[in-house]
Prior knowledge:
Blueprint: H1 8-11, E1 13-14, E2 17-18, H2 25-36, E3 47-50, H3 62-74, H4 81-85, H5 92-100, H6 103-113, H7 119-136, H8 147-156, E4 160-163, H9 169-181, H10 204-213, E5 221-225, H11 228-237, E6 240-244, H12 255-260, H13 263-279, E7 284-286, H14 292-304
Parallel strand pairs: 3-4, 3-5, 5-6, 6-7
Antiparallel strand pairs: 1-2
Amino acid sequence: MTVTTRILSNQLKTKGAVIKVHLLLSDFSEYIKERYGSVIKVNKIEGVILDWAGTTVDFGCFAPVNVFINIFKNAGIDVTMEEARTPMGMLKIDHIRAMLSMPRISFLWKEKFGRAFDEQDVAHLYAEFEPALMATLIDYTDPIPGVVETVQSLREQGLKIGSTTGYTQSMMDVVVPHALAKGYEPDFYITPDGTKSLGRPYPYMIYRNMEALKLSAAWKVVKVGDTVSDIKEGLNAGVWSVGVILGSSEMGLSFAEFNALSEVEQKIIISKTEKTFIENGADFTIKSMRELPELIELINILLSAGKRPRGSSMDQFN
């Protein structure tokens, strides 16, 4: 599928002229050439930083979500799938804390235990969460369709491939080798354990990627993820922040569930997921990882025209 500038109408203004929503990439390239002269690709993307579950492996990000539901159920609190998914992408102990802070869950906790939750409750739930996740994590390491080929294509273009995650190092000790055996391996990865437990939405994992991969500027980096936490991580780091729709935790459907939908139903849920990413600050969304190489080509054109990502101090979108 050709990446179009359907996203740009929500985001990109060039001296008051909004780029039309249905312009194809080639048309947009010609527009830039006419307005700014020939495109000189000196400024271009140097690296891509990818999330793991829901972005590159584990279509639908199902490994952690059922465990979150079960540990709360064991505590006598029934949580919904939506409540379990909302903080997805955060360090998992932070995820539990965020769930306990939700008004409905907080009310149910007080009703059951006669008090507000405290850090001891957070620690207790996490102590139950980690071994339960570790017991099944190996089953959720399959690369999402299109990821292996896309990463190969990006490397052929000379791009570095980094990654960040909400998993701990012990969890990634399971995920990384099994994903490798199935064909996916980034050049670098880091967990919140490597940033003093300061995970998303803090930008520090992205900065560690930039340091390790020798990426020269935040605006020459693209971050791709499947949750609102991923989008905010990218914004806070000043990189191009991209939400991927198919396979995402935000969409919350398995591969079989998505394909069982009618064409109209698929379009509705794709649009809903896209809207969530855009409303939370994403520079772009892509339907699948297969669209990423062409999106990077478009971003290179924008860079040559002096554009910068939303989170950049050199923001050109206003």
